[in-house]
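Sanity check

After download, print the first record. It should look like this:
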Amino acid sequence: MRVSSEKLVADFRYGDMSAFDFPTLAWRKAMNDAALRRPPKLSYGEPCGLIRLRIGLQGYLWRARSIRCEVGEIVIVNGSQQGTGSLRPAPSR
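Expected structure tokens:
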């Protein structure tokens, strides 16, 4: 690692961050704006995922992967465990 007497314009290392570099006022304004725009009913939303996201994925899959599918065939999950768990058939009694 080279040590220089020049002041860095940007420090891309992870870890501690200077409190002076963090945009506290902009962050607070963004948080307040988001809180005021919350939906009237707080819920999980659609079980298959946000429709706008699924529409976007449908277009991406067609353009980038040549996969033709319907929006109703796309399900958004939180990770591989949830995804593979939802593919398993329900156990028979």
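If your output differs, re-run the checksum step. Summary of this record's structure: The first helix runs from residue 24 to 36.
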